[in-house]
Design a protein that fits this description.
Keywords: Coiled coil. By secondary structure, the protein is an all-alpha fold. The protein is about 75% helix and about 0% strand. It has one domain. The protein is built from 3 helices and no strands.
Amino acid sequence: MSTVSAKIPDDLKKELEQEDINVSEVIRNALEEEITERRREKLRRDADSLRKKVDDGIETDEIVEAVRETRQEN
C-alpha cells in the first residue's frame, strides 16, 4: 500500500475533524470513482472509434444483444 498526501487549508482540516470524517476513506473512494469514470470514458471513446471504423450500420443494441447471447451460450 502507498501513502498519498495533500495540503488543505487549516479551517477545512478543523471542519473534517469536527464532523469526524474519515479522510483516508473519502480520498480512497473519490480516487476509485475517478479511475472508474476515466475507464468508462476511455471505453466510450474506443467504442465510438471502433463504430466509426466499422461503420456497417450495426446498432449498439444489436451488439449488446449479441454479447449477451454469447455469454448465455457459455
